[in-house]
Amino acid sequence: QFPFGRRLPCDIYWHGVSFHDNDIFSGQVNKFPGMTEMVRKITLSRAVRTMQDLFPLEYNFYPRSWILPEEFPLFVDEVRMMKDSDPSWKPTFIVKPDGGCQGDGIYLIKDPSDIRLTGSIQSRPAVVQEYICKPLLVDKLKFDIRLYVLLKSLEPLEIYIAKDGLSRFCTEPYQEPTLKNLHQVFMHLTNYSLNIHSGNFIHSDNVNTGSKRTFSSILCRLSSRGADVKKLWSDIISLVIKTIIALTPELKVYYQSDIPAGKPGPTCFQILGFDILLMKNLKPMLLEVNANPSMRIEHEQELSPGVFENVPSPVDEEVKVAVIRDTLRLVDPQKKKRKDVQYNYVLWYRCQTLEEASEAKEEAREAGDGGERGGSRSPEAGLPSLCLKQVFPKYARQFSYLRLVDRVAALFIRFLGVKGTTKLGPTGFRTFIRNCKLSNSNFSMASVDILYIDITRRWNSMGIDHKESGMCLQAFVEAFFCLAQKKYKSLPLHEQVASLIDFCEYHLAALDEKRLVCGRG
Ligand code: ADP
């Protein structure tokens, strides 16, 4: 707890819900600005859709989704078209209210006309998604996986995944959806908060049984059935990295707005909860990302009617304690200090006489390295090995080609101008076009203004954020894709976008060079 009246800054701030303090000027905060907004159902679906437009095959781990109310007509049309082209297709859809959690307000439908339009759709935006009808079953039950992921840093990107997670089970045997069973939540929804109310829920002290188990126990079972568990892990890692790559562009916009570069501010890290469903063929599908995953290691038990007591939950404890412990080890400010001392030692070694260098070496040794090497003097020597496994930058090379929107966001941020904003004004957009030399006889400045007004108006009418006026990042990305398609006809979209980014970066680098020379002059 941060005692009221405390003046001294802390080295780690652990907020309960979201990043909300604007008067922290140093240290590390356990939440990123904007993360809660970014993982809402609609925003996440939009961010993934942008990536699906660029890389459809790489982003096929997220069910096809439509945003309500604005995409309702599109949803109806697309479903009709797909049914026409394949009359044997008998889909089911799941409707999820935006900002909902714990299964709140979720229902299944067989036909677009079953959406509960009466009043609620306008007042409560939602995502409607293709329902995965053939999930992997264990003991005839549907289950999902909660995996903990540490986003340790945004720039440079650093991601860790916990080696173990939780598997949360339904409490009624699964049947593929029919009109008769659509409403049976204990059969179709894996939420702990719902299934706990079923008479069939089993609290177990054993991590291998019950309605909540460790993910590793499932993997053991799958492996004994001959499943390729290594491939499954590698698919999960890839899903996590790709999802975070979809979120980073907008997170960077929030970040520079709350913690402007060059001003004193904290650095951020965040533990995220990834909800993943395994399909029958073991393909992992992303259901959602939680910015504030529950870290409870107890559950309520009804001792006698109406009398409840909190009792320890060994399954939660096994997974969650390790996640928090390792997060603190990884962001440990003492460790950073020790690293700095070591770095200084290297510098000294390069510049000083041998005698001075050996003094510095001694200093570094005294500080202890505390890293994964875990030498005998390390304060971590007695702790279990890390459960959080670094996956980025470890696998950065495999995924760097996907980070196109990140580069578009860097252009956007450059032209935001006034610090602290998240939206681009018309002048900023014009300057972007001019500095990147995108206007020509076929694309006049008047057309630039029309493009800006059209796209900005449409995005603002979706009513996401009325606080500021101007063009949000998503609108800028749409405008950028339009420009890329215009300029590089006939290439696939991701190549058009990559070419336009190269073109813009080239002209901006030339401009910076010119300004530098002029400045020197
Ligand atoms: P909430 O935030 O309310 O928990 P989720 O998106 O996690 O919303 O959905 C709740 C549950 O519904 C999931 O845990 C999962 O069991 C089920 N579910 C969600 N989306 C799908 C889907 N596309 N296909 C099959 N089941 C799904």
TrEMBL record:
GO CC aspect terms: ciliary basal body
Segments for region (Disordered): 360-381
GO molecular function, one term: ATP binding
Basic and acidic residues: bias regions: 360-375
Pfam families given in the database record: TTL (PF03133)
Keyword entries, A-Z: ATP-binding, Ligase, Nucleotide-binding
A biological process term (GO) from this entry: microtubule cytoskeleton organization
Coiled coil segments of this chain: none
PANTHER family the record matches: TUBULIN POLYGLUTAMYLASE, TUBULIN POLYGLUTAMYLASE TTLL11
Protein name: TTL11 polyglutamylase
Organism the protein comes from: Stercorarius parasiticus (Parasitic jaeger)
Gene: Ttll11
